[in-house]
Every structure is written in structure tokens, then in C-alpha cells.
Design a protein that fits this description.
This protein has 288 residues and is α/β, with parallel strands linked by helices. It folds into two domains: 2-139, 3-Layer(aba) Sandwich (Rossmann fold); 171-283, Riboflavin kinase-like (Elongation Factor Tu (Ef-tu), domain 3). 29% of the residues lie in helices and 26% in strands. The protein contains ten helices and twelve strands. The strands form two sheets. The chain has a six-stranded parallel sheet with strand order 1-4-3-2-5-6. Helix 7 packs antiparallel against helix 8 (160-167).
């Protein structure tokens, strides 16, 4: 998939454009991509960064980083994605100006979006306006019950399987391995300390089974209460892995929440519980 950051970076040709933020690239979003591909035109995504609600000063718990969003869009079969920087200048564009500058400029003939899609200054543009401007529009087929808000609710409940059913894949954490307390190595279970974007949603604290780098992983999300921790840590232990992960990006799948964090009567009891967590991780089944 070709990635562009301005209309001039894409050849002007007949395109079917799926437009939206597409945070999470869930099953509903994928229906929009399929509609674009099925037109037979060059299937293209127009998306925004940062998330428009973040740019307007609102809190948003993102389901994916931009990097991961682009990877998932690439997997959906589209030919190109244009990432529009959601700047104050773009916010002030009237809908017709946006349509000419970002859609007509790349050859868009068909525009596909959700029924409630709005764009342009004060969200005053919609699919009906695009029809009047000469574009053919398609309302993307709705996938019943699928929404980013429901996925967020499932993750806040610590239910990755429910989130996976809406995403079409396991939910993920995406970050870079940085130096941590290095306590896991002394316990016999060396973990990676994952730093994630502050706007990325982190699920309910607890111990999870999942995977990364083709290795199953037991993942601790929380504050390490046994050691009196106060700072949130995300620490995957990769089973049967031996290597240096510092500075490396990891995309960690979450399959199953195993238990709450806990304070143990001794370090030996903690080590025994970690062993049981590892056994449960080996037995876990990847959702979807």
C-alpha cells in the first residue's frame, strides 16, 4: 500500500475513496474498505492524524497508533492511504474546499463513508453535499453492534475476547521496549517494559495471556502492587524467547485476562503464581 501525506503525492486517477478516522480498523471499518475495493476503482483511504477529537482538545483513548492503523489498512486490500494532518488550517476549510483540495485532487469519483460521516468547518459537510458537488457516494454497510465505543468498553472490562469479536482480531498494545526495574530477571521471568503512547487505551489492570513476535507472552498491566509500585507498567514476558528487546517496537496481542494484580505473602508465592500464569498462557487460545 502506498502512503501519502499530501494530494500531490498521489497520482490523479479514478478512485473510490473511503474516508474517516478508522481508529482500530475494526469490522465496521473493514466493511467500508470492502465497499471501496468492490467498485473496481483504485481503492484509497483518506484518514486523519491526529484524531480530530484530540486535535479539538477532547480526550480520546485510541485503539491503535497511526503506525499500526496504516499497517492494518494495508492489510485490508486498499491501494493507497493519504494521511491528512488535522491542523487548524484543515479544520477551517469549508466542506467544498476540502472536497476539491483532498478528494477531487486525487481523482476521487466515489466516496464511501458511514451514514453519520461529517467533515469540513464545524462538521457542516456530509455525503449529500458531496453528491451535489458531483461525487458518487456510498453509505458503507453497517456491521451491527460494532463500534469503537463498545470495543473500548470491553477493554475497560478486561474482556479481550469480546473486543476481538468486534475488531476481527485480538486487541493489541503497541509500544517500544525501554529500561524498567529489571526485577523480573531476578525472579526467573525477565520481562520487557513497554512504553506506549499516552493517548493509547490501556485495558483494565491485571495479568493477561497473549503473544508477540511469534511467541506467547504473559503480560502484566498495572502498578506491581506486591512491590508497592505506583507507576503504571506494561510488562510482557515472552515464553521461550532469548534476546535483547531494548529499543524495539512490539505489537502485543491480548488473548485472555488471567487474574487481578495481587500482593503475595512472600516472593516465593509470587514466583509460584507467575509459573501458573505461564502455564495458563501456554494453554490460552487466540480469540477470533
Amino acid at each position: 500500500m502506498r502512503i501519502a501525506h499530501a494530494p500531490a503525492q498521489l497520482e490523479r486517477q479514478p478512485r473510490a475513496v473511503a474516508i474517516g478516522t478508522f481508529d482500530g480498523v475494526h469490522l465496521g471499518h473493514r466493511s467500508v474498505m470492502r465497499a471501496a475495493v468492490e467498485t473496481g476503482l483504485a481503492a484509497t483511504v483518506v484518514t486523519f492524524d491526529p484524531h480530530p477529537r484530540l486535535a479539538l482538545g477532547n480526550k480520546v483513548e485510541l485503539l491503535t497508533t497511526l503506525e499500526r492503523r496504516l499497517e492494518l489498512l494495508g492489510d485490508s486490500g486498499v491501494e493507497a492511504t493519504m494521511v491528512v494532518a488535522f491542523t487548524p488550517e484543515v479544520m477551517r476549510l469549508e466542506p467544498a474546499e476540502f472536497a476539491e483540495s483532498y478528494l477531487r485532487a486525487i481523482g476521487a469519483e466515489v466516496v464511501i463513508a458511514g451514514e453519520d460521516f461529517r467533515f469540513g468547518h464545524r462538521r457542516s459537510g456530509d455525503l449529500e453535499l458531496l453528491e451535489r458537488l458531483g461525487f458518487r457516494t456510498v453509505v458503507a454497510p453497517e456491521v451491527e453492534g460494532v463500534s469503537s465505543s463498545r470495543i473500548r468498553a470491553a477493554l475497560h472490562d478486561g474482556d479481550p475476547a469480546a473486543a476481538a469479536r468486534l475488531l476481527g482480531r485480538p486487541p493489541e498494545l503497541d509500544g517500544v521496549v525501554v529500561t524498567g526495574d529489571q526485577r523480573g530477571g531476578t525472579l526467573g521471568y525477565p520481562t520487557a517494559n513497554l512504553r506506549v503512547d499516552p493517548d493509547l487505551l490501556v485495558p483494565r489492570y491485571g495479568i493477561y495471556a497473549g503473544a508477540t513476535l511469534d511467541h506467547r507472552a504473559a503480560i502484566s498491566i498495572g502498578t506491581n502492587p506486591h512491590y508497592g509500585g505506583g507507576e503504571r507498567r506494561i510488562e510482557p514476558f515472552l515464553l521461550d524467547f532469548d534476546g535483547d528487546l531494548y529499543g524495539r517496537r512490539l505489537v502485543v496481542e491480548l488473548w485472555e485476562r488471567l487474574r487481578d494484580e495481587a500482593v503475595f505473602e512472600s516472593e516465593e508465592a509470587l514466583i509460584e503464581q507467575i509459573g501458573r500464569d505461564v502455564d495458563a498462557t501456554r494453554a490460552a487460545v487466540r480469540p477470533v
